[in-house]
Design brief:
Layout lengths: L1 H23 L4 H13 L4 H13 L30 E3 L4 E3 L1 H13 L3 H5 L6 H15 L13 H15 L9 H5 L5 E2 L2 E2 L18 E3 L4 E3 L1 H11 L10 H13 L9 E3 L1
Parallel strand pairs: 5-7
Antiparallel strand pairs: 1-2, 3-4, 5-6
Helix pairs in contact: 1-2, 3-6, 4-6, 7-10, 9-10
Length: 270
C-alpha cells in the first residue's frame, strides 16, 4: 500500500505541472509547478507536523519528565517567536554556533535527559529524530513572515560563515561536485526544478528560508539538516553527522546570504 501511494504521489507530482502547462496555453513549466504547489499548500500536511511539534514542546517527556518550555533558542528561555530567523547563532552555554535543530537537541538533553548522541545517530524520520523535526517545524512557523537576520557579531559566527563558504565551493567526490555545481549561478535547473542561486544576498530566500518543508514525493517533513544531508548524498559525498560543524557552517553561510528574505515555512516541496 505504501509503495502504491508513493507511486501515485510521484506520478501526480510529475504529471500535473505538464497538465497545467497544456491548459494554460503557453505558461512556462516553472509557472505551472508554482500553481501546482499553491494548490497543494491549501491544507499543507506540514500543519500536522506543526501541531505535533507544539504538543511535544509543551509535554513532559524524557528521563527527567520535563517540557522544553525553558529551552533558550537565542531570545531567552521559552521564547520561540522570531528565533528561527536569527539562527544559526553562537550560544555561550555550549560555546559554539548552533542551528535550530542542533540547539533543540541540546535542550532535549539538558532539560529532558535524552541521550543527544543516541538521538543524533537515529535515522531521519525515526523515533526521537522525527519528534525533533516536528518540534523544529513548529518553532520555525512562529517566525513565518519575518525577515532573516542571522547574526555575524561573534568571532565564531564570522568563522563559521567563512568555513561554510569554503564548503559550498569545495569540489570532491566521484563526480567532482560541490554545492555550487547546482546553486552557483543563475538559470540552472534539474528536470523541471529551478535551482536557486544561493551565493548572494538575498539570493537564497527561496532556499534556506523554505525549510522545514513537507516532501510530497515521500510524505515526510524535512528540516534543513536533512536537506543538506541529501545534497551531500547527491554529490556522492559521505553523509555528514547530524549537528556537525560542517552542516552548521553551511547553514550560517546560507542564512547570512538570506538576510532580508522572508521566512515562508512550512513550505511544500516535490
Amino acid at each position: 500500500m505504501r509503495k502504491t501511494q508513493l507511486m501515485w504521489s510521484l506520478l501526480l507530482g510529475s504529471a500535473l505541472p505538464f497538465c497545467a502547462l497544456a491548459q494554460t496555453g503557453g505558461r512556462t513549466a516553472t509557472q505551472a509547478i508554482e500553481e501546482y504547489r499553491a494548490l497543494l499548500a491549501d491544507g499543507n500536511p506540514a500543519e500536522l507536523f506543526e501541531a505535533k511539534g507544539e504538543d511535544l514542546w509543551k509535554k513532559p517527556r524524557g528521563p527527567k519528565n520535563a517540557t522544553l518550555e525553558k529551552c533558550d533558542l537565542g531570545k531567552g528561555p521559552g521564547v520561540v517567536k522570531g528565533v528561527f530567523v536569527e539562527l544559526p547563532r553562537y550560544f555561550a552555554d555550549t560555546q559554539k554556533v548552533q542551528d535550530m535543530e542542533s540547539r533543540l537537541l541540546t535542550c532535549m538533553e539538558t532539560l529532558q535527559g535524552f541521550d543527544a548522541k543516541a538521538v543524533a545517530a537515529t535515522s531521519f524520520g525515526q523515533g526521537e529524530m522525527a519528534n525533533l523535526t516536528a518540534i523544529a517545524t513548529w518553532v520555525a512557523t512562529q517566525s513565518k513572515g519575518m525577515k532573516f537576520q542571522v547574526p555575524q557579531e561573534h568571532l565564531q559566527e564570522k568563522t563559521y560563515y567563512e568555513v561554510g563558504k569554503r564548503l559550498f565551493f569545495q569540489r570532491a567526490g566521484t563526480h567532482d561536485f560541490s554545492c555550487a555545481s547546482c546553486h552557483g549561478e543563475e538559470g540552472k535547473r534539474i528536470r523541471l526544478q529551478d535551482l536557486p542561486l544561493l551565493t548572494k544576498n538575498p539570493g537564497d530566500g527561496i532556499g534556506f528560508a523554505a525549510w522545514p518543508a513537507y516532501r510530497v514525493s515521500n510524505g515526510q517533513m524535512w528540516g534543513m539538516q536533512q536537506r543538506l544531508n541529501d545534497c551531500y548524498r547527491q554529490q556522492r559525498f559521505p553523509y555528514p553527522g547530524f549537528g556537525s560543524d560542517a552542516l552548521t557552517a553551511l547553514s550560517v553561510y546560507l542564512g547570512v546570504n538570506a538576510q532580508g528574505a522572508v521566512s515562508a515555512v512550512p513550505t511544500i516541496k516535490r
